[in-house]
Amino acid sequence: MSNISRRFAMLLVGAAGLAALAAPVLAQDAKFYSGAPRTYLYNPDTDVCFKDTSQYKKEGPYTIGFSNAGLGDSWRVVMLHSMEASAAKHKDQIKKLIITDAGHDDAKQVADIQDLISRGVDLLIVSANTQQALDPAVSQAMAAGIPVVMVDRRVASDNFVTFVTASDAMMGRLFAQWIVEKLGGKGNVIMLAGQAGSSPSENREKPAREVFAQYPGIKVLETVYSDWSPVKGKQVMQAMIAKYGKQINAVWSAHGLQTPGSIEAFIEAGYKDGEIPPHTTADVNGPLQMAIEHKVPMLEVGYPPAMGGISVDVALQVLAGAPVPCIYTINSQIAVSEGDNTPSIETPLRLTDLVVPKGAPDMLITGGMGPDYDPKTFKVDYPQ
Amino acid sequence: MTALAPIRLSSRVRKNQGVLVVAVLLVILLIFGAFISDRFRTTSNILNIFEQSTGLALVSLGQTLAILTGGIDLSVGSMISLLSTLTSGLIAGKVSMVPPVAIGILLLGLLIGICNGLLIIWLRVHPLIVTLGMSAVLQGIVLLYSLGPAGSVPPSFNFLAYGKVLGLPIGAVFILVLFLLVALFLRYARLGRYIYAVGDDEVGARLMGLPRARVMLTVYGFSGFCCGLAAIYLTSRFSVGQPYTGLNYTLASITPVVVGGTLLSGGKGGVFGTLLGVYLISLLNNVLNFMDVSMHYQLIAQGLIVIAAVSVYVEKKKRV
């Protein structure tokens, strides 16, 4: 693709597509960000990778197959629900959304993909159980002329049309930058990471460390691992509080799953409301409820399961033959506790706008499913 | 239904070693599938099912022999994980490394299996315990070797799993040949018949002076060899080996054996039943996928089939 003007034209069409797409389900309130992906708009590179999808252009209505790696945690349940809701919204264009679930088994997912191809799907959405093992199966689907849209978990090669995801790096940086500015460039931080060696945790930790390193007054006391669990998160933070006590000025948490455990540890150590150091969080209702109740300064940047629904929108864009970015980074909603905007993190959204006050603490609030959503009773009439 | 019916069924089944029942079930499922969807009937779908059965067929073949002696091999899952991780780790993307590594992996599988056999003979501990222990040891070793996907294989290596010869998937055709050879061995070789004898009546076999040690080394060595084959096949299918690749195969490998009519107590059954059992499970998963049945029900269906199969085939005198 050396033709510059052609590429430029594609870029324009693509950008228009992005903007049209990006008015997703979350737009119920003007405070919520509903624009085009920030990572795309703010990207300083002139050349952004776009995929030409004209070869996949097809008349609808379509049969779309979704090969899911598996369920098993609340994030993946909401992701699936948001996909079903999106398919229901596009009933006019989608004849059938066939969903398979591999139960986190590579062999089953390879067979599922083959079965979906046998069933004559027009497009495949795949959330790969593991990056490498699913690569041959996904590559073969592409070779057979079936476009593949990856969501949340990609395959190792680039043999797919686009990958719908959120940015771990952006989360990690925003969390760290906010902490730096909350502390006025001086203080001690505990990094409460996820699982040692897991890519979402590492991809948030590394950019965060780079941010902290730029401020000589900021010291990362220790990095501890919660395995994404509030119970383990509480245990390790109890140990940290015993060791460092009031020296801890902020807790950088890689996600909201472990944040409640950390806040509980501070409460049980005798910290009064308003004394608990600033925390970061993502996606989960509980930490927001606790932050509001105990006046904990908090920043929320989600890794939204709403990407399930957006992958359906992107799939329709591909089948319409419009160019799509090679990596589609969806927006996270950014919210802070009252009065805790900082120069870099300036957002109209407050924790109180996101929280479901009477909702279950383990509920995910970034699925774009609206305020009445309850994963236990959710049912939508999608084309199946 | 009279109370006699199941008993009569079970005695008839025993005579035909279950092969007939599974064959009938297979036909019923095929007809059923054809009614559900036009696309089910396509050649490409039927070939898919044929192809998807290869990995399971390889592991279950070795497992059948172990179970025929009245034992069991619970180390197959970890062995596959170890061997497949080593396959891609040692090939490391180099075409020239493929033949030596493939041969080495098969020999290593054989060797680990023989170790299982030796431990069973020397320690006189039930194979269940020996192979369970071996399973943990092997899982530990593979995790020490690599915590994630190791190395890579050249793209042409995928041919083993996805390639076709005369329009038929290579692996699936290989399976047919291999099962035929093993069936002939069991029927005509003296050692093959000893396998049944040891499983049927271990004490009697010992009194008659049958070479129990040789039988054990053969079946567990062969099971290890089959794991080597499965590991190479799966590495080709996934283009990489990972430390948990084989995890599901331990239990999965037992299902087709018992569904195919081989008694868990040993001595009765055979590899054709197992092969049909493998096809039945692949077909069932495919049909359930076509019916949009969620994988959670697929698990339940498989579990119920195992229980039903064992209860139909179990020998009356050994019933508890």
UniProtKB/TrEMBL annotation, chain A:
Subcellular compartments: Cell envelope
UniProt keyword terms in alphabetical order: Signal, Sugar transport, Transport
Domain Periplasmic binding protein: 64-322
Alphabetical list of PANTHER family matching this protein: D-ALLOSE-BINDING PERIPLASMIC PROTEIN-RELATED, GALACTOFURANOSE-BINDING PROTEIN YTFQ
InterPro entries assigned to the protein according to its UniProt record, in alphabetical order: Peripla_BP_I, SBP_2_dom, TAT_signal
GO cellular-component term (any): cell envelope
Protein name: ABC-type sugar transport system periplasmic component-like protein
One Gene Ontology term of the molecular function aspect: carbohydrate binding
From TrEMBL, chain B:
InterPro entries registered for this protein in UniProt: ABC_transp_permease (IPR001851)
Transmembrane segments: 18-36, 101-121, 128-146, 166-186, 215-234, 246-264, 271-291, 297-314
GO molecular function, one term: transmembrane transporter activity
Keyword terms, alphabetized: Cell inner membrane, Cell membrane, Membrane, Transmembrane, Transmembrane helix, Transport
A GO cellular-component term linked to this record: plasma membrane
Subcellular localization, as worded in the UniProt entry: Cell membrane
Protein known as: D-allose transporter subunit membrane component of ABC superfamily
Species in which this protein is naturally found: Mesorhizobium metallidurans STM 2683
